[in-house]
Design brief:
The longest helix has 18 residues. The protein is globular. It has one domain: Alpha/Beta hydrolase fold, catalytic domain (Rossmann fold, 3-Layer(aba) Sandwich). It is an alpha/beta fold and 221 residues long. An eight-stranded mixed beta sheet has the order 1-2-4-3-5-6-9-10, sandwiched between helices. A two-stranded antiparallel ribbon has the order 7-8. The chain has five helices and ten strands, in the order E-E-E-H-E-H-E-H-E-E-E-E-H-E-H.
């Protein structure tokens, strides 16, 4: 049985309905939040532990937080589309969140969810800030490009493990260094891509950055 603070729903996606969970926030919440999960073909779902812990931090600030399963995952309809249709899935979730709450949105993505979600969230005027966890640079023979972020002046936080097998620290540092400010990178010592044994460090990095953003009136330092 779900907590009264959790609402199960389906969003009308282009490939069919998208299974979603909404953790309720407070009426005076400054932001609404969206979290996108890791790669569907490697077991990624909205119940992933990194997604869950990110949700707990965001929700602790009173923000309503929406998680969803990409097309073809869980009870979401459709089939995996190699990252193309999944960008639209994020757009659908952003549209629903904006219509439901009418608040600026903080987008968070983990791994694949970051790679595809940033493409949808960066140009969306309803999105106020971006959080990318375990940003993949190269995985399964594929290199990821984030050149589109060169035009993104929104507050951006990147959190990865120093031992992330899909993102060498130096490559990630060089990528973040090229981006418009504000852009912050936090590397968790000894952590791997999934922050195994280091979820406390992940939560701490998110909490500290969000506190800075709120203290600065929505502009993270």
């Amino acid at each position: 049985m779900k907590s009264p603070g959790i609402r199960s729903l389906f969003l009308p996606g282009a490939a069919g309905r998208l299974e979603s969970l909404l953790n309720a926030g407070t009426e005076d919440a400054a932001y609404a939040c969206l979290i996108a999960h890791p790669h569907p073909l490697f077991g990624g779902t909205m119940h992933n532990k990194v997604v869950y812990h990110a949700m707990k931090v965001l929700n602790s600030f009173g923000f309503p937080v929406l998680r969803f399963n990409f097309r073809g995952v869980g009870r979401s309809q459709g089939q995996h589309d190699g990252g193309r249709g999944e960008v639209n899935d994020v757009q659908v979730a952003l549209q629903w969140l904006s219509h439901e709450f009418g608040k600026p949105i903080i987008f968070t993505g983990f791994s694949f969810g970051a790679a595809v979600g940033l493409r949808a969230a960066c140009p969306d005027s309803r999105v106020a800030a971006l959080i990318s966890l375990g940003t993949p640079m190269a995985a399964e023979g594929r290199a990821y490009s984030y050149e589109f972020l060169l035009e993104c002046a929104k507050p951006k936080l990147f959190v990865s493990g120093e031992s992330d097998q899909f993102a060498a620290s130096r490559a990630l540092e060089e990528m973040v260094r090229t981006l418009p400010e504000p852009a912050s990178l936090v590397l968790i010592p000894q952590a791997d891509h999934f922050f195994t044994g280091h979820l406390d460090g992940l939560r701490g990095a998110l909490k500290s950055w969000l506190e800075d953003m709120l203290r600065c009136g929505g502009v993270a330092v």
